[in-house]
Every structure is written in structure tokens, then in C-alpha cells.
Amino acid sequence: MFGYISHCLNTIIHYLQRMEFKKLLRTTAKYTNILASNGITNLKELMLYFPRAYEDRQEIKTLSEVTTDWTLQTVKGFVTKKSMFTTPNWKKISQIHFIDEEENPWVINAFRWTYTLRTVKANQRYYIIWKPDLQYWKIQFTHPEVMPASETDASAYNFWRIYPIYSELLWIKPARFARKIFDVLDQWVMEFTEYFPDEFLDAYNLPWIHDTIKFSHFPETLEQAKEWKNRIFFEKLLTIQLVSLQNQLEYQQSTQAIQDIPWDHIKHFLSKLPFELTWAQRRSIKECIDDIHNGRTMMRLLQWDVWSWKTIVATAVAYHIIKQLWWQIALLAPLSVLAQQHYETLAKLLLPLWVRIELLTWSLTPKHKNKLKQALKAWTIDIIVGTHAIIQEDIEFFNLQFAIVDEQHKFGVRQRAFFQRFDSPHLLQMTATPIPRSLTLAFFWEFEVSIIDEMPAWRKPITTKIVNNWEIKKLKPRILTKISQNQKCFIVTPLIHESEHESMEEIASATVEREEVTAHYPELSWKIWLLHWQMKSSEKDQIMKDFKDGKYVILVSTTVIEVWIDIPDATIMIIKNSERFGLSQLHQLRGRVWRSDIQSYCFLHTKRKSWDSYQRLRHMEETNDGFELAEIDLRLRGSGEILWVRQSGDTDIPIEILTDSDYLSNIKQAWSLLMDKYPEVVSELFRREELGGVGKNLV
């Protein structure tokens, strides 16, 4: 009964707060509901919805002063006439005729644009805001923003100032955010309390919170906007380290330290290998084993390039653990076919050494799954390899002490929470995505990092070449020759939507591509197949098995093959419309045909060798170093793709900060200062993080 009354009271309080927020903003319930769904329920939270960009509207130009350099510019004009006409191909064109302050005449043309045409009135003055473009030897107005001018221009929120641009929420336009925040900013900015001590602010040249809030929304100059945003980014990176530290404290446990580590088992394992490990691989093995014996739970991130055989590091460490410490081990992979590949690799290396290893995936029969579950509990399995099927509630281990997570970006925090049920086993997270050092510093605070950046001596550098439509047709004889030599070819279709899962348009594009390839290679029509994410797991696995076994020799695929099975005799890849991909993803894709000592080729198809795209793709021709390409991609496209967020880079921390090692080092020093002298500030950062953080929408 008490719980019900408490729930009712909370509902009433929430409703009254919402009504008060609506009244203060002088807006509608629909508006406040949209804000609430995005975590904005009061004016203080609205103040923390920062702009994603700024426009310099301090200078109002005449038409003779306009420059066509793709910068946003503003012209004040007097509208003389407006009209709409239909072109011969039935497209409707809106026209607005105006003259500027020097009575220079001009016309705005735009497709449709009926709403703007309807609201703009003749014989009135407006501001025309746009990025001028020079086409057909005259300046073009392509869908500009048209806003009415008034007698109070000097005090307006949207002119004669640096103007904030906010991210749009549903139908709430950026301009509406600017207006609402402008109206309440001066009154409500004082509601914020500074929680950083003066010594800390002075040490790292950070402004007060009141100035930060006020001038982040409406700065006086663009340089000032950058200065005030610096505090937001500084605090955000502090919070990222806070979350990392929290993860580390929650996961890491004290373990038994071993001073003199025996290396006999590692030496025995390495002596059985048919090849020599690189120095980087040996160093990574040593770093992992040192971690396991140093008295704290290991949390290590293992990075490698696409040409590195990273599994050998995890296998060597696993063998040492089983023979020296008698622990159980779990290896997680995001896809069943990748789990199968790991199982085959580990079984080939470890079964002759009397290590018990099994595979657990969703495709197994219930009877087989139950048998494996019982074996894990009874400790008749040393290593279990599998997919998410491993981290289920009904899975029990006898002595799980070491967990390996492959392609760590494909998993969330769920797997770490699962392992905590078993007293937080040592954790090795692996990724084949080369991550720049600065991003590792910024986003992987809690992990020690090992990097395999040395190519095996027997691996030949892949040959990469940019080709256009005409050049790609000339590849047919070469591809037929390679196929006659029992080699295989991937043809990757372009990404259309930047999302985690493929859309129907992408699948349709891949289907059309397969038909075109079949028409171009009629002699191989029965050996060409299609692969995409929307297929069932069993179907995808069978297709890859058939491709590996030689039933198909050309596989037309979407980006599903980014992290897929090892096919050593696949030596040719054609990536269609390659300009749509980032360098890191292109490098990841071409790694699928870089799996043996056979010379491999990657052809980057682009319809037009435009200057920008061509210069970017040239980096793929010039280097096979994934870490170098990741650094270039970070500068060109953002950290999103490298960290597997979005291909275009969906992060709110600027690249100039993420590539500034000195700045990131200052963050570490600042964090140590807070931990040592101001624990109450750390508590405040914890509280703010629980409430959603500060500056979460600042880009």
C-alpha cells in the first residue's frame, strides 16, 4: 500500500514539474514531451543541451562582398517579387526576387520550397543565409535560410552575433532551441554551482561553470566559443576516465601473486609451432602472463593488424594457464562461423598437447548443449569456445579463471557482468581494428594495451589499386587466371546506410551486383554466390563453408565479411564504390584476402576519381599499415568508425582533442589531482554521470 501511495506522489510531483517547465518555456505539452524523452525535464537540463556548431552572423554582406568559398554568409535584402513556375520536366521551382542594401538585384531558386514561398512577403526585408556556390559563372542560392529582419536587429538572438546551431529533436528545429535558450539563459545560468576548486580551474586554465554555460550557447567570438567548450570536453574526458575507473574497480580483484614465473610450458608450446613468432607476438604473450601473475585481475586489450595471427597469442597464454594453473577458459566470438574458426585453430594446436576443448553455439541440438553444460560444470572441458550461447544464465563453470573476448566492439557490458558471477576471471579483450594511441588513451583507460604491429616475415604485402568503371572491366582476364589457379575472389557491394544492420536497399544492391557479375562472367555463373546479413546464421555459415571448399569461386557480399572466416586461397577483392567507406573499414575488408603467403590484390572501385576521394583512397595504395591508416582516418572522418560507433564518426569530442596526446595526458594528471585532494569532486562527477552527464549533446 505504501509503495502505491509513493508511486502516486512521485507521479503527481513529476506532473507538476512538467507543468512548471512548460509554463517557464511558454510552450506546448507536445514540445515538453519531446524534450522529456531526450532527458530534458527542466531548465537546468535545457541549459546543458549545448550547440553542435556555430555560425558567424556578425557581418551582413552585400552581394558584391559575397565570396564563393563555401562559408556561411548573410545578405540583407528587400523582397520585390515571388513566384513559382514548372519546368518542362514537371519540376516546380520557387523564385524570390530581392535587392540588397546597394540595390543589387538577385533571384533565389529552389525546388518546391512552398512553405518558405508562402511565408515570405513582398515589400519586406529579410536576411538570406547560405553557403554561396558558383555555378554556370554566377552565384547560386541553393535552399538558403530566409529570416525576417526587424527594427531590433542589433539585440536579436539570431543576428549580429555568433549564432548557435543545435541538433534537431524530432520536429523541434534548431532555431527554436536558440530562441528558447536565449530567453531564459541569463536568468537560469546562476542556478549552476561550481564544484571544481579554484586551484584546479587555474591549473588547467578552465573557466567557471557560469561562464561556460553562458558563452557555450552565445559566445561573443568563435575563438571564445572554442575556449568555453574546452571545459565541457575536459570534464567529459574526466567522466570517461571515471566510468573506466568504476569498471575497473568493480571488475578487478586481488589475486595470488607469483614472483618467479615458470616459462617451461610456453617454451614447449612454441617449440611445437611450424613457424617463428614475431617479436611483437612474443612481447604480447609475456605481457599477458605477467599480468596474470602480478596479484591483480588482468584487464588487457590486445590490438593487432589484419595481417597478424593474433589467435596464437591467446592460445599460448591459454596453454600456460591450463598446464601451470589448472584453470578453465572461455573464448567468446560474435559470430558462430568465427567461433568455429577459433575452435578449429585451437583444437589443431592444443588437442595434441592433451588440452580438452569444445565448441558451444546456438546451432547445437538441446541434447548436445546440455551435455556440454554438464561437462563444464564437472570440469571435463578446459577451454569452451563459442558465441553468446556461453554467457547464458544456466551456464556454470567449475573453475573459470580466464576469459577471452574476440572482436570486443561486438559485445556490450553484458559479458563483463556475466563473468563477474565467477569472481571476475582474468579478461583479455581482442580487436582486429587498429586504434590510434590517442583514442586508446581516451576511451580505454581501464585496460592495459598490447599491440601486434609487426608483419610476419613470410606474409607478402597486399597490392592495392584504385580503378574506375573502365579499368574494372579489364580485370576479367586476371581474375579468370587466378581462379584457374584455384584462387577465389570477393566482390563487396557498397554501404548505403550507416547503421549496424544492413537495410533492404543494401541487399537489393548486392543482388543486382551479383546479377551483373554473373552476366560479366557467364563461364562461372554456377560458381558465383551472394552473402548478406539478413540470411539465417546457418545459411551464412553454409555459404562460407561452400566458398572455402571451392563450390563457389566468386562471392558477392555486403560488409558481412569484415570479421569472417579464414580463407587462405581468397586472394582478390573488388570493393565497389569504395569512396563510401572509411580507410579503416577498407583496410579491414581487404584483410579478408590477406591470409596466406600467396600474393593478394585489392581493387578499390570508384566511379569518379574526384580529387578529395582519390587523395583519400591513395593512402590505401601507399601503405598496408593499419595503425597508420587509422590515424589518417581519425583526422579525416572522426573516431566513430575506428571505435565502431558509426562509419561517419558519431563522437562529440573534436578530433583536435582526440589527437592531442598532451591534452589527454593533462586529463590523467587532473584525474590524479582530484583523486588525491578533492574526493568530493569525484563524488559529484559520479552523481552527474548517473544523471546523464554534462554536455552530452555538444559536438
Overview of this protein structure:
The chain is α/β, with parallel strands linked by helices and 699 residues long. It folds into five domains: 1-41; 59-160, Beta Barrel (OB fold (Dihydrolipoamide Acetyltransferase, E2P)), CATH 2.40.50; 173-251 and 660-699, no CATH class; 264-452, Rossmann fold; 463-623 and 625-655, P-loop containing nucleotide triphosphate hydrolases (Rossmann fold), CATH 3.40.50.300. It has a seven-stranded parallel beta sheet with strand order 13-14-12-15-16-11-17, sandwiched between helices. Strands 2, 3, 4, 5, 6 and 9 form a six-stranded mixed beta sheet that branches. Helix 19 (537-549) links the parallel strand 20 and strand 21 (554-557). The radius of gyration is 30 Å and the shape is globular. It starts with a helix and ends in a 9-residue tail after the last helix.
- Helical region count? 25
Secondary structure tally: strands: 23
CATH architecture of the largest domain: 3-Layer(aba) Sandwich
Task: Round the mean pLDDT to the nearest integer and report it.
Answer: 78
How would a textbook summarize the main sheet?
Answer: 7 strands, parallel
Anisotropy-based shape: globular
Distance between the termini: 47 Å
- Please report which band the strand proportion falls in: under 5%, 5-15%, 15-25%, 25-35%, 35-45% or over 45%: 15-25%
